[in-house]
Amino acid sequence: MVKGNCKVCVTGGAGYIGSSLVKKLLNEGYTVHATLRNLNDQTKVDILKSFPGAEQRLKLFEADMYKAEEYEPAIQGCEFVFHVATPMLHTEGHKHKNMIDATLDGARIIASTCIRSKTVRRLIYTASVMSSSPLKEDGSGNFKDFMDETCWTPLNHPTIDYNHNFLKEYIKAKTLSEKELLSFNNNDVGVGMEVVTLVCGLVGGECLMPYTPGSVTGILSQLLNDEYSHDSLKFMEGLLGKVPIVHIEDVSNALIFCMEAISMSGRFLCTNAYVSNADIASYCQNKYPQYSIKKYLEGPKGETKLGPSLLNEKGFKYEFDWHLVLDDCINNYINKNGDLKL
Ligand SMILES: NC(=O)c1ccc[n+]([C@@H]2O[C@H](COP(=O)([O-])OP(=O)(O)OC[C@H]3O[C@@H](n4cnc5c(N)ncnc54)[C@H](OP(=O)(O)O)[C@@H]3O)[C@@H](O)[C@H]2O)c1
């Protein structure tokens, strides 16, 4: 494969994961079609255009998940599509009644557009561990022994009925759209389009965009004393047993690994660690004693373990352990904000 001739589409190319992926794809020599919602957002556009190779091999497109037909020109002619964009807030004024509906409908339209293009060989989705809770389906609140690719969050579980509207909708949106996208998988090897869902843990590390991503604020919430993010982290531990964490570099590398594999389809967990909130707090407290943790999340120590990694079995190697994820979140936050303050 001559990489410069290989066109790859990244939906949500100006987000946290999207921008890191676009930069890496350009570095690797691919031609990239990246989408964002507003081509007049000069800050995002300028950062994307500043990446090495962008002048020759980056083309930007405007598209919104609420009008997912808009992705067609970006997908046309591409061999691989990374579907990274996801609504984080419901936008009124469209046919969709909520964020779940828009995410699911958008995913369906993007997958159909990929098939219609006749050029797309593989669609790779940034799924979330929030769809992979190891909670037992019996409603007991007990966890399975392992968290692995067979785990699906039971959407009618009482735990989900939580007073956090964004997370409630996000979990449903990500779970239903992941299942929907997997249903587009063509199981006849070498025929039609393959679909990979990369089920990412909470992502941390450097963000190329000027903002601090929600997942980084979540990881740092105990240090930042951020009530809202505290709450989300606690909820995440309650839903998943512990908190799966992964470095942004490992996520981008894993996405490209899924693209470059000769043949690959199905669901793959992407996380290098599965730790408790208390573990996160202890590490931060010991390594950064100058910052005091005001609200230490001392939760139950979950017994669930990560199952054998299907991604590792395929040959992928993680480069960053969870301590490095935390260190890079802290350093990046301080570089951007001058201190560890909200
Ligand atoms: N960060 C994590 O810990 C994590 C973990 C697992 C899975 N994921 C998944 O990874 C993907 C990217 O997450 P992120 O952390 O990079 O988030 P992010 O920085 O907040 O980026 C969100 C992206 O979604 C796009 N977006 C939001 N609403 C949209 C809409 N209505 N139509 C089209 N695009 C829209 C944004 O586009 P604009 O630039 O146009 O605003 C942006 O590119 C998501 O699918 C998320 O579920 C993230």
Automatic annotation (TrEMBL):
SUPFAM superfamilies in UniProt: NAD(P)-binding Rossmann-fold domains (SSF51735)
Keyword set, alphabetical order: NADP, Oxidoreductase
GO molecular function, one term: oxidoreductase activity
A Pfam family reported for this protein in Swiss-Prot or TrEMBL: Epimerase
NAD-dependent epimerase/dehydratase domain residues: 8-261
PANTHER family hit by this protein: NAD DEPENDENT EPIMERASE/DEHYDRATASE, OS07G0601900 PROTEIN
Name the record gives this protein: NAD-dependent epimerase/dehydratase domain-containing protein
Organism field: Penstemon smallii
